[in-house]
Design goal:
The protein is mainly alpha-helical. The chain has one domain. The protein has five helices and no strands.
Length: about 120
């Protein structure tokens, strides 16, 4: 399995959680009629590529490398699922930090996050 495939699987898990939290108003973001059926797959591939590019620029000696990689991933998936306009909202990044801290405080999630970070950073798990 390639790292992009692994990232897509991990993103799928988070997308499922985000979908459960969506408000009914956000359902208006449906795929337009006549759109290619694989357009969503292409979007997910693009997100995975973007995440991989952003993660690759994190300094290999950075002691916060894993945490930064997961934050990049979390931001990217949430923006893709909830809308690009969030990228311009400073409160969004505060929220992502709070969500990540909460996730890290749950020991079972923390283990999964560490595994996800290894996937994101291209390490063997």
């Amino acid at each position: 399995m390639t790292s992009v495939d692994s990232i897509n699987q991990l993103a799928g898990l988070i997308r499922g959680q985000v979908a459960a939290l969506r408000r009914p108003a956000s359902q208006s973001r449906r795929t337009p009629t006549g759109a290619r059926p694989h357009a969503k797959d292409a979007q997910h591939q693009d997100i995975a590529s973007l995440v991989a590019k952003r993660v690759n620029v994190i300094d290999a000696n950075d002691p916060q490398r894993e945490r930064k990689a997961f934050k990049i991933f979390l931001e990217s998936v949430l923006i893709a699922e909830l809308g690009d306009e969030l990228a311009n909202d400073p409160a969004f990044y505060v929220m992502v930090e709070q969500v990540q801290r909460q996730m890290e405080s749950d020991e079972s999630l923390a283990v999964s996050i560490r595994k996800a970070c290894r996937i994101l950073l291209g390490e063997k798990i």
